[in-house]
Specification:
Length: 61
Amino acid sequence: MLAFADDPASRWEPKRLRLFATAGRIARHSRKVHLRLSAHAPWIDLLITALARLNAIPDPL
């Protein structure tokens, strides 16, 4: 829930956490790993925003 700090999603009940059950595929290409998500999935904008926020956290030393 770290990525949803300023979003109403941080207060959702566990039954609404189906957000984490969004279908996706892991694709590997040229030493990179990509997560392919469906553009038609519910709450996809919220999920992409959360993943971008988590990706922006600096690596620990």
